[in-house]
Each structure stands twice: as structure tokens, then as C-alpha cells.
Amino acid sequence: MTHSDLLQIAKTYGDPVYVYDSEKIISQFNRLTNAFNDVKHLKLNYAAKALSNITILRLMNSLGSGLDTVSIQEVQLGLLAGFKPESIIFTPNGVSLEEIEEAAALGVRINIDNLSVLEQFGSKHPDVPVCIRINPHVMAGGNTKISVGHIDSKFGISIHQIPHLLRIVDLTKMNINGIHMHTGSDILDIGVFLYASEILFETAKNFKDLDFIDFGSGFKVPYKEGDIETNVEELGKKLSSRFNTFCKEYGKELTLAFEPGKFLVSEAGFFLAKVNVVKQTTSTVFASIDSGFNHLIRPMFYGATHQIINLSNPKGRERYYSVVGYICETDTFASNKRINEITEGDILCFRNAGAYCFTMASNYNSRFRPPEVLWHQDKAILIRERETFDDLIRNQIDSKDLFIPIHKKKEASVVK
Ligand SMILES: *Cc1c(COP(=O)(O)O)cnc(C)c1O
């Protein structure tokens, strides 16, 4: 996909617009698969929350991926996209027992992350196998909002509670078929992964009927040219070898599972927006675009960096710009970044816009959410339409007779 392909997409579908390159998604999937060549049974379960457009889910299904889901609605989306129930794992946090029962009734794999629900679920449905989410208490991840395995985290069952967990399993006679962890996002140090994996292996020895061990996700991807990223090849070599040794000790060929989101889709995504205004103040040159954190919240929410390219003037002289959105509060995408000279009307491209971008978009400021386009086999395919005013108003109930406009009240009193 070239710059001119992207510009053509902005022309055809308008701006702002999200674009996803299927080839990049496929190559990332193959890269991770190849890194774990030495393992007999590998299962990648794509984390749907990163990018949940149904056509993207269908693409993942066609690659042989499973699906990691965190809400009953994601489970339903996955089934609608053609995933078999047994290819879907439900890994929620803090949801009701009823929601977990609903997922179990749909036949998907269940992952439970607290003792309270484990005990209730096990007592009622001892015949349904369950995976348990362990919190190994390892500090990992890019920042505190995305680190989920540490001691103060709300996720998982603490390794210090294993004795209690074992009592519940024993008393309910439930079947534990998997052990799981997910310690955070943007984990760079594979040593952290390997260390946490040892804790999982140690935990796994307590259960006789395991089918899989799920090592979660959190691979860091590059956010700009030459940026650091998780060395998945090295992780693959080291963890595969350790995993195979464990399986020998355990006496069964288990499945090694991962649930990558960002790794599969982040770099495949591009967000295109037009510059409405270039404003020079005493200290800064602002480029204001026809979008805001309602469409791409990561910079404002996480302090995430998205590289920005001026597609309309790629050879122009580089100058410093602050790229800002139209939301009526602080809405900064990037501060004082070198970008090829910007003129009003230029199309800017935000990179790494595949993961946690569209799925976090909202209608704040009563704006429409943008369309999504898949670039597949040298063709642009619209996979979500731009919203319209009807979408904004759809579920609102306009109680027309509840309040009389003040000018009508006045008219009424004059008549009297
Ligand atoms: C969000 C999430 C993932 C995906 O994390 P990435 O950093 O996007 O790869 C995997 N597993 C669980 C349980 C998650 O909640």
C-alpha cells in the first residue's frame, strides 16, 4: 500500500478515515507462528478488543486464529464472524456470574479471574471445564494503565491464593483445563515473560487435566522507524524449548497459547485526517485537523506516540508542528514534531492506528465516527460506513411534549 493509495482512499471515502492493510496483519500472524515453530501445538487467539470490525475478525478466522474476548458482546461478534465456539476464549474481568454462564451456554472456553466467581461457577457447573487466570505479580508493561500483572492489579487470581483455589477445585470437583496470565501491554523485556512463565509452569503442576497454557500477550511493536520492539523470535526459541521440557515432565503435549492484539493489528492501521487550519501563535505552529480524541484517544489517554506523516507533501521541508484536534478541550495528538511542511487541506497520516484506535472511538462533541477501509489484494474495501446524523440520534428518546419552549409559553400568556 503506497502513499498514493492512501490519498486515493481519503479522496474516495472522505476524511477522517481508518485504513487497514490485510497484508501486514497476515505477515504479523505468520511471524509469530513461525517464532514458535518448535512447539507442536500452538494457538494464537486474537484479542478482539484491539480492532473488532467483523471483516477483520473474518480475516483472523481465515488465518486459523482463535479469538480472545472480554465481553459477551465480543463473544457474539466472534460467533457472527464464523469462529467456532471452541475457538473463542472468554477472558473477562469482574463481570457477573450470569455473563459467564451465558458465554458457557454458547459453548466458548471460559477463563475465570477471581475466586468468588470460580466457586459459584464450579458449584453450579462442575462439568464445564474452566481456565484460570493467574496473577503472577510481575511488574511489566509500558505504563501503569496497561500493566495488569502487578501486586495492586485487579486482574487475575493471586499466586498467593493457590491453596484456596485448590480447595475450591477439590470441593466442587470442577475441571481446570487451562492456566492463563496476561501481565500487561508493551512488554519489551522477554526476561519478564520467561520469569512469569516459570510461575505459570509451577502453578500448572497442581492440575492433572490441563489442555493448554496461555501466556497472554503484551508484545511491544515499533511506533516509528527503527523503534525498539519485543524480540518475538528470541522469545519463541527460549519459551518453546522451556515449554517442551515442561510438557515432558507433565506427561502430555499441551497447547501453547497467546492472545495478541496490538502485535497483529497495530502497524496495519493508518488514520487519515485533513488539516483544516494552520495557526501560528507566538510560540507554536498548530495544525488543526478534522478529527480529535473522539476518534483517536491514545495520545490523550495514554500519552501514546503516533508518528504523523504529511501525505500531501512528503518531500516538503520539515518544520515543527503541534497537531491538534477539534474537540473543545485540550486535544493534542503531537507536540512540536518535525513534519513535512503543512498547508491547509493537506492529508496527514497517523501510523500504528490499527489497535485500540477505532474501538475506542466515541461520539463526543456529537461527531460521527469515521469509516473503516480494508486494503486487500491491491483493492480498497469499505468495511464500515461513516456514521450519519441518524446514528447519533438513534437511541435517544425525544420527549417533545415534556418541555414547552419559553417563546411559546410567552405567546400563550399574551393570548390570554
Ligand atoms: C487486551 C488483552 C490482550 C491483548 O493485549 P495486546 O497488548 O494488545 O496484545 C490479551 N489478553 C487479554 C486478556 C487482554 O485483556
UniProtKB/TrEMBL annotation:
<dbReference type="GO" id="GO:0009089">
    <property type="term" value="P:lysine biosynthetic process via diaminopimelate"/>
</dbReference>
<feature type="domain" description="Orn/DAP/Arg decarboxylase 2 N-terminal">
    <location>
        <begin position="24"/>
        <end position="266"/>
    </location>
</feature>
<keyword id="KW-0456">Lyase</keyword>
<feature type="binding site">
    <location>
        <position position="329"/>
    </location>
    <ligand>
        <name>substrate</name>
    </ligand>
</feature>
<dbReference type="InterPro" id="IPR022653">
    <property type="entry name" value="De-COase2_pyr-phos_BS"/>
</dbReference>
<keyword id="KW-0210">Decarboxylase</keyword>
<feature type="active site" description="Proton donor">
    <location>
        <position position="328"/>
    </location>
</feature>
<keyword id="KW-0663">Pyridoxal phosphate</keyword>
<dbReference type="InterPro" id="IPR029066">
    <property type="entry name" value="PLP-binding_barrel"/>
</dbReference>
<dbReference type="InterPro" id="IPR000183">
    <property type="entry name" value="Orn/DAP/Arg_de-COase"/>
</dbReference>
<feature type="modified residue" description="N6-(pyridoxal phosphate)lysine">
    <location>
        <position position="49"/>
    </location>
</feature>
<dbReference type="Pfam" id="PF00278">
    <property type="entry name" value="Orn_DAP_Arg_deC"/>
</dbReference>
<dbReference type="GO" id="GO:0030170">
    <property type="term" value="F:pyridoxal phosphate binding"/>
</dbReference>
<protein>
    <recommendedName>
        <fullName>Diaminopimelate decarboxylase</fullName>
        <ecNumber>4.1.1.20</ecNumber>
    </recommendedName>
</protein>
<feature type="binding site">
    <location>
        <position position="298"/>
    </location>
    <ligand>
        <name>substrate</name>
    </ligand>
</feature>
<keyword id="KW-0028">Amino-acid biosynthesis</keyword>
<keyword id="KW-0457">Lysine biosynthesis</keyword>
<dbReference type="InterPro" id="IPR022644">
    <property type="entry name" value="De-COase2_N"/>
</dbReference>
<feature type="binding site">
    <location>
        <position position="356"/>
    </location>
    <ligand>
        <name>pyridoxal 5'-phosphate</name>
    </ligand>
</feature>
<dbReference type="InterPro" id="IPR009006">
    <property type="entry name" value="Ala_racemase/Decarboxylase_C"/>
</dbReference>
<comment type="subunit">
    <text>Homodimer.</text>
</comment>
<feature type="binding site">
    <location>
        <position position="356"/>
    </location>
    <ligand>
        <name>substrate</name>
    </ligand>
</feature>
<dbReference type="InterPro" id="IPR022643">
    <property type="entry name" value="De-COase2_C"/>
</dbReference>
<comment type="function">
    <text>Specifically catalyzes the decarboxylation of meso-diaminopimelate (meso-DAP) to L-lysine.</text>
</comment>
<feature type="domain" description="Orn/DAP/Arg decarboxylase 2 C-terminal">
    <location>
        <begin position="18"/>
        <end position="354"/>
    </location>
</feature>
<comment type="pathway">
    <text>Amino-acid biosynthesis; L-lysine biosynthesis via DAP pathway; L-lysine from DL-2,6-diaminopimelate: step 1/1.</text>
</comment>
<dbReference type="InterPro" id="IPR002986">
    <property type="entry name" value="DAP_deCOOHase_LysA"/>
</dbReference>
<feature type="binding site">
    <location>
        <position position="218"/>
    </location>
    <ligand>
        <name>pyridoxal 5'-phosphate</name>
    </ligand>
</feature>
<feature type="binding site">
    <location>
        <position position="302"/>
    </location>
    <ligand>
        <name>substrate</name>
    </ligand>
</feature>
<dbReference type="Pfam" id="PF02784">
    <property type="entry name" value="Orn_Arg_deC_N"/>
</dbReference>
<comment type="similarity">
    <text>Belongs to the Orn/Lys/Arg decarboxylase class-II family. LysA subfamily.</text>
</comment>
<dbReference type="GO" id="GO:0008836">
    <property type="term" value="F:diaminopimelate decarboxylase activity"/>
</dbReference>
